[in-house]
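Dear colleague,

Thank you for sharing your sequence with our group. We've completed the structure prediction you requested, and as agreed, I am returning the results in plain text so they can be pasted directly into your records. Please verify that the sequence below matches your submission; if there's any discrepancy, let me know and we will rerun it promptly.
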Amino acid sequence: MGWWSRARTAMFGGSPVHEVAGHSRRSTAWQPSNPGAIAALVATGDALRIRSRDLVRRNAWANAAIEAFVANAVGTGIKPQSLIAEQIKREALHALWRDFVDEADAAGLTDLYGLQALGCRALLEGGECLVRLRPRRPEDGLAVPLQLQVLEPEHLPLTLNREEPNGNVIRAGIEFNRLGRRVAYHLYLSHPQDGSMAPMSRQGGLDTFRVPATEVLHIFRPLRPGQIRGEPWLARALVKLNELDQYDDAELVRKKTAAMFAGFITRDGPEDPLPGDAPPDEHGNAPLGLEPGSLQILEAGESVTFAQPADVGASYDAFLRSQFRAVAAAMGITYEQLTGDLTGVNYSSIRAGLLEFRRRCEMVQHSVLVFQLCRPIWNAFVDAAVLSGAIELPGYRRRKRQYRACKWVPQGWSWVDPEKEFNAMILAIRAGLLSRSEAIASSGYDAETIDREIAADAQRADSLGLVLDTDPRAVARNGVKHAPPPADSAAFDTKPIE
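Please find the predicted structure tokens below.
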């Protein structure tokens, strides 16, 4: 017995601190490996991605899980609110941004917020997403000479690992300098699985070309320190979902097959003719049909036994629910979002589930989508707008951080009971615990835009002599109309009474 074994025996009495770390019968068969963050994805990344895409294509539940998360994380878009102090410059920048949103897609299929949803879906389905910043020429006629190209992660080869003559290293297609910073991405010109379907000008084999890291946005959720590539979000549910799909399909086929046999006729004499008009086939079998209200006369020696198809069983629904809950937990969504089943749901239970989901969703929104996707796009947009002369921002090089500052506002949440939620919000505002701007932002809107619209509505109503029940200047919350202000202006003297 070595010194370490003797010391461990003396300290712990021969028993491991954790049962799973011992060599008991229950843990002997459990011999996991412990690859590093990079090696784990290099070894299994392609297989995970292939299986994830296959399942999303053909499995309704996998696709529903992806769609539910994208709809909640992106929805109609995560939108910026510039924090420039000067209102004129801020509004001019917002107006230019709205033009850029419509022209951002290099493929011309959607707007910028549609690209956000596309990138989020690629992140969930394939584990990561690449977005290229494509500068354009002034003669292209764009409001801002910049467009975006969304690429699937297959364009970045996992198997490309080598050392460069200048001392840089390439790991999983990403080039790092000696300080460990990303300096370039080595991308396939076309999707490696497109084959002959790729454009003729891009059929150059599987050669890669080097793109500076300043022109590529790599969006993935890091789960381990040192991780450089992403894994599909369905990774922990792929096997269960695939086998659950096969099981449910087998139950459907079993019921369908059993239901096709309405009954069976037994004859004492196989050579006797069958009742009915249908002639027998070459094997001597003649199908008999049943019609509503029909009476069938059987010959002597014949009897009919009706089929009784086996039921799926009382445990079928409960079994599916338990499996779907496990899949929903692996995806980070609720069971109701995955299946659409609202059986047994009440206000308290669904609100508790949605609050937990939204906390997870907000974490992904701000730490992944905003930080890795939205923020770099905004910075590149402001740079391109200033360099092209589309907007004037004096001293931009010196005040770049100030001009780039912005706040990102996702689409607001739709609550289960809006009346309760908004009443709670009003109480928080009146108590000084929440600002109107933050309350409006939580609904996905810009406070300045809302205020301008309210002022415009009020001015239009006054000019037309309208008194609306929704106007707090004229009608109280209880529906009582305010008394008109006194004509004497002294009544509005705000000096304190002595």
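Summary note from our side: The first helix runs from residue 3 to 12.

Kind regards,
the structure core
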